[in-house]
Amino acid sequence: MMTIQGKGVSAGIGMGPLYFFRRAAAEAPCYTVQDAQAEWQRFKDAQAMAVEQLGDLAEKARAEAGDDAAFLFETHQMMAEDMDYEEAIEGVIREELLNAETAVSRACDQFVEMFASMDDSYMQARAADIRDVSRRILSILCGTVQGSIASDVPVLLAADDLAPSETIQLDKSKILGFITAGGSGSSHTAILARTMGIPAIVGVGDALRMEYEGRSVIVDGSTGAVFIDPDEDTTRRMTQRREEQVARQKMLETLKGQENVTRDGRSIRVYCNIGAPEDVDAVLANDGGGIGLFRSEFLYLNAETYPTEDEQFEAYKAVLTRMDGREVIIRTCDIGADKQIDYFDLPREENPAMGMRALRISLSRPDFFRTQLRALYRASAYGKLGIMFPMVTSVWEVREAKKLIERVKAELTQEGVPFSEHVQIGIMIETPAAAVMSDVLAREVDFFSCGTNDLTQYTLACDRQNNDLDRFYDPHHPAVLRLIRMVVENAHKNGIWVGVCGELGADLSMAETFLSIGVDELSVTPRAVLPLRRTIREANLIGKAQEILAALDRGTV
Questions:
Q1: Per-residue buried b or exposed e for 432-448, using 16+ beta carbons within 10 Å of the residue's own CB
Q2: 225-228 and 7-10: which strand pairing?
């Protein structure tokens, strides 16, 4: 038996023969052309076909893996039609009189080098996206087809890396798991694998060789271990773990309709995070109690220009109507940092995570903010709405936002447009400044929601997009947990509730800690609802809560 260690990015056990992914090589010939306009039209036709294919992939991804997965391909559609990308290709065709294949290859190399040289790890990861888009256009120009799995039995798929379009096009009935030499936990492929429920391991490097193809392999997506020609003991252990996982999922289904209450009577609300109206299906299927975070910025990310008031209203109304009276908290637009949109025309910043983003953009562009607030309040007539502002650092920011809300309400009243007078207003606690000022901020709003991803990043001065900082980026750090405890205490003193909507909320090892410090609500991905409910219902904090709080005081949690 041989063991190879990578990084597990999508949990689960996969067992079967190893198969290496084969791409259809799109050989790009290089030659001069006489008619530059005709060659440019060749490119435009291939581009249009690529955009159409990506649209079909987006719909397939939405049906199979949800809206977040579809967004990957919608982003690729925008990349394929990016003006700078087009201009680079057109320049090679018209100025150098070279063929479209050569022009696409050169533009690809130029943009890949540009993205790869950036300091931001999120932007570096976009190099793989531009390669994928360019490869698709080249395949169309060259008349080649995408790679597939030439196997009659399900396999563990190995590759140097897998682009999102390659992953979604594969026949999932033939995939037991996948292993890549490169990649990271934050890559689009890893995210897509988790969404689709496929065990995945990345970063095994060159340890996995073509000569191993066809051999029996087991992958553990939780630990990142790859076992080649596993012995009887390893096979027995992994088979047992897989059977336990299947049984666990069946057991979780029995928890639907049950309360989120510990054995000693402590209760907590379990809500869901979503990014689009279509995600409500997953919330309802997993028995989420409400929506604790609707990331409204996805409406902007999926558009070619600013969504209109009516477009936003219809999206918010759809979610509120589907949730049928259950609470829906919508975060105002959180653009900036790792979420950039060309039509926002934001200035290039050395440190975008610390720059113009989220509420700062909204307050700097009152007409833009007013449009979203009008849409939100119009939709409030159709359900139980809460609005929360991201990236708050000061009391004046909240007061200025509330002033604009009052102006919007006055406008709607004057226009005779119905809206609810019972919309709760809250803020994200994701900066140390907001946590430290939470006693004052609590007098201004109806609730807090702790965004632990950014709160950890800003508290520890640790870029959460930088994979090299994994060992330093610690959401369990006592400093982060002490800030959350301070926020809860200040909120409750002022009669408001507190939620946690970052990834830490779904960390089952943290459930007892959050219950002990008095968190009122946890908002997680829909798939995390039932495992979290089970953990809560099995907990008994009699005598234990004080131990947890004492450990937090000592800084040993």
A1: bebbebbeebbebbbbb
A2: unpaired
Q: Supply the pLDDT for residue 464.
A: 67
Whole-Å CA distances, 102 to 37, 78, 88, 263, 267: 15, 21, 11, 67, 62
> Is 501 noted as a catalytic residue in this protein?
yes
Distance between CA atoms of residues 372 and 308, nearest Å:
8
Angle at 164 (CA atoms; ends 215, 242), nearest 5 degrees: 45
Residues 272, 333, 450, 501: which is the catalytic one?
A: 501
pTM as predicted: 0.64
Question: What structural domains does the chain harbor?
Answer: 2-23+147-235 (3.50.30.10), 36-142 (1.10.274.10), 263-554 (3.20.20.60)
- Residue (of 255, 284, 260, 254) closest to 272 by Cα position: 284
Contact assessment for residue 401 and residue 359, using Cβ atoms and an 8 Å cutoff? yes
- Type of residue numbered 498: V
| Both tokens assigned to 5 | 């260690």
How far apart are alpha carbons 174 and 408 in whole angstroms? 54
Where is mean pLDDT largest: 37-46, 426-435, 505-514?
Answer: 426-435
Token pair 């109507």 in the structure block, residue: 321
- pLDDT tens for 135-156 read 888 878 876 555 566 676 888 8
Q: What is the distance between the alpha carbons of residues 537 and 25, in angstroms, rounded to a whole number?
A: 54
**Residue tagged active-site, from 76, 108, 188, 450:** 188
| pLDDT beyond 90 at 411 | yes
**Edge-to-edge strands of the sheet including 225-228?**
2-5, 225-228, 216-220, 13-20, 155-159, 175-180, 200-202, 7-10
- 492 is known as an active-site residue: no
Quick one: pLDDT at residue 205? 86
Q: How confident is the model at residue 337 (pLDDT cuts 50, 70, 90)?
A: low
